[in-house]
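User: Some background: our group keeps a shared notebook of sequences we're curious about, and every so often someone picks one and asks for a predicted structure to add to the entry. Today it's my turn. The entry only has the sequence so far, pasted here. Could you supply the structure so I can complete it?
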Amino acid sequence: MKKLMVITLVCLLTLPAFADEQVNRMLDAASDGHVDVSNIAGSVTVNGWNRNTVEVTGTLGRNVEELIFERDGDTIEIKVKVPRRGGRGIESDLRISVPKNSSLDIGTVSADIDVSDVAGEQSLSSVSGDIETDYTGEDLSAQSVSGDVEVSGNGVAGDVVASTVSGDVTLFRVSGKVEAESVSGGVVVDEGSFERAELGTVNGDIVFQGKLEKGGRLSIDTVNGGVDVEFDGDVSARFEIDTFNGGIHNCFGPKAERTSKYAPGWELEFTEGSGSGRVEISTMNGGVTLCKK
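Assistant: Of course. Here's the predicted structure to add to the notebook entry:
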């Protein structure tokens, strides 16, 4: 009798109703169409390929109502539909292959987003999840409330906006016009050539290593954090730098001056080269280091 009870219990625990659902679906797609993805919890991984189809594989949480996967013109919608009150058992991990030239609109609540080899425009957002994507020159927006944002490019210029409330923002080999900010976390811009770069934090350090183009503009603002700027090659710009509580180290030569003999702040203004560009740096609590390779 005991043996029969054990077998019965094992069978109940392994019934399919208690397992996640496996997904493997495919639709024909336009070579440069739009793919719209929505997933509440879990993960979304997207890669581009040389086929005019969209494929979705992965798993759906046991309490997911359905996976909406449909095409309307040149737009394909992929949506994990969950009960109105959410709850447990809705975590879904989606692996999606799309035509390489597709544009993307991906939204998640508690799910990471990872995109690679997609050449079209990208709009990526997560409430509580990390975002990691490749950049190939089309407009890109990557925004998280609680998570890191990382964008890796190949030096091609374009427009990039990357932000997070709680986490770090990293732009690597991204060029052109960029905006990057974090409320509680650092911002790093590593390599690239910039027409305009606007970087900001409330609590976090900012690091910029790259080239400022002729007539380009670099604007850096932080409340509590240090600033480290290293230009790649010669730079031609008018510099305006100020701190409230922190020193200024300048490898270009001119020395900073006290804003007042009664206050701890420092300021520095000078022109390098013809002064065709503009560099503005401001920090409340933190030092500034300014150099070039």
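Suggested note for the entry: The first helix runs from residue 2 to 13. Residues 1-17 have pLDDT under 50 and may be disordered.
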